[in-house]
Amino acid sequence: MKTLAENRAFGGVQGVYSHAARTTGCDMTFGLFLPAEAEEGPVPVLWFLSGLTCTHENAMVKAGAQQWAAAEGIALVFPDTSPRGADVADDAAYDLGQGAGFYVNAAQAPWVPHFRMWDYVTTELPEALFKAFPLDEGRQAISGHSMGGHGALTIAMSIPGRFRSVSAFAPIAHPTASEWGRKQFAAYLGPDESAWAAHDATLLMRKRGFDGPVLVDQGSSDQFLDLLRPEALAEAMAARRQEGAFRMQRGYDHSYFFISTFMEEHVTFHSRALYD
Amino acid sequence: MKTLAENRAFGGVQGVYSHAARTTGCDMTFGLFLPAEAEEGPVPVLWFLSGLTCTHENAMVKAGAQQWAAAEGIALVFPDTSPRGADVADDAAYDLGQGAGFYVNAAQAPWVPHFRMWDYVTTELPEALFKAFPLDEGRQAISGHSMGGHGALTIAMSIPGRFRSVSAFAPIAHPTASEWGRKQFAAYLGPDESAWAAHDATLLMRKRGFDGPVLVDQGSSDQFLDLLRPEALAEAMAARRQEGAFRMQRGYDHSYFFISTFMEEHVTFHSRALYD
User: Is B276 a domain residue?
Assistant: First the structure.
């Protein structure tokens, strides 16, 4: 584990670290905020998965989450969104390849072997984190934005018992029925659509739901609403009788201004579950 | 206007009044809570429409709304749910006739002429209230439970500009597709289903939505979930990009214990809109 930066922030430390990852076969960088309480012992942890084109850095510097996490004594993890490097496959489009890992394990060329973001985020990075930092593995929550909201929801529903709560800002809610999803799943997972269902939050909500509270915020002026398909997830949550809230925030768009506006409510939402 | 009772409550007055109503052709009773601020001048008003089998009294004594309305300086109106009296048609079933007006104007026998709850709640009672009490006609909001949630949502969407906000507890969300709705609409409105659409919150949400915030709470253990159809409304709200929140509250049922638990949040939700 290599320390790239550590800055005092809100009484704690905002760090940036990198490590050689076996799952993705490249060096991976992540951000980690530790609140002051981490000096005394393990603290609960909130994962934040970012969207298309983002690195570990965007949410870390623009989402405004540290102030609320510090107030609640919660750590924040900001993983990268894909493998990186000159020998890692890429695509000219912003929504495929580097910066667009979609939190899946690729099954076909040219994305094998590096594009294994599912395994990286659900297995390798947690192992590295809980070994190296004072984080409480029994108290985890997860959130994310756009592609990262998709990642947060699908991961939370697929690993029952790991996360106490899940939230999302403008998630890609029904990727098997959207060009934000169908294009990438066809590329990474292949043409067999039956393999896609495990990575669709709406389909997972219909099938099993989440054993804990769910909070979804969506801006009504989001420029990508037709790609996000929030109505499919809202219907599935209600039909599942899923504990939680789906909120349409009038006038907000897809940006970090939207995220930062509602970040306090998301952190306190997770805090209630983490300290329950 | 006849005063049936007035009790000091939370620094204001909880009154019960009756008046001879022309729309329903019978005496109608309602509850009105006036906060202390009403002694100084007109105050904003929150309507609360009740559900099947209720009179003006149920929510008035069991919903716990007065404490929060007093804190916000807001009046509360609790109308009855149907015409009443020995000469008013009725049915042996709890969900038709007296106590089950469904907030529509009946078009056929034996429900004509008394069953005109739409006109009573949207026209006659407001006229009587704004004439007799210090209420601010320009600052109105509306809420309700079950059949009353249906009434609140359909009235709010059908009279644009009158209400600044609307909320509902476990509303009958899609009555044209439920036996809580089809039975009553067939009886009151007649077999032409095209006349029913104007009284279906999901269909109105799909068609026009509401120009203001909407808050819907639904209990996940509600014994009437299959009749309420919340998933249809949740989908329609998200598809409409309707400002607001749909919340599934884990373990809550259809009772006033559910209502009173979340009443504070509904009153403060409306207060924000009323004082905006």
Answer: no
Contact predicate B161/B183, CB 8 Å: no
Q: What is the pLDDT of residues A2-13, one digit of tens each?
A: 999 999 999 999
Closest CA to B168 of B182, B184, B177, B155: B155
Q: How many CB atoms lie within 10 A of CB B86?
A: 6
CATH of the domain at A102: 3.40.50.1820
What are the tens digits of pLDDT across the range B86-132?
999 999 999 999 999 999 999 999 999 999 999 999 999 999 999 99
Query: Looking at this predicted complex, what is its ipTM?
Result: 0.78
With contact defined as beta carbons under 8 Å apart, do B4 and B235 qualify?
no
pLDDT 10s digits, A167-193: 999 999 999 999 999 999 999 999 999
Q: Is residue A273 part of a domain?
A: no
Contact A244 B248 (CB under 8 A): yes
DSSP string, A138-166: EEEEEEEBTHHHHHHHHHHHHSTTTEEEE
Which of A220, A243, A246 is opposite residue B234, by nearest beta carbon? A246
Tokens of A144: 């994310």
Q: Report the 10 Å Cβ neighbour count for A206.
A: 17
Inform me whether the pLDDT recorded for A276 exceeds 90.
Answer: no
What domain range is A120 assigned to?
Answer: 2-255
Mean pLDDT of A83-96: 96
**Using CA of residue A217, residue A220, residue A224, residue A227, what is the dihedral sign?**
positive
Contact B244 A241 (CB under 8 A): no
What single DSSP character describes residue A180? Answer: H
Is residue B173 assigned to a domain? yes
- pLDDT of B152 reads 98
Cβ-defined contact of B238 to A241 (cutoff 8 Å): no
Strand (E) positions, chain B?
Answer: 2-9, 12-21, 26-34, 43-49, 75-79, 135-144, 163-169, 214-219, 244-249
Asked if residue A152 lies in contact with residue A270, where contact means CB atoms within 8 angstroms, the answer is: no
How many domains are there within chain A? 1
Cβ neighbours of B213 in A, within 8 Å: 250
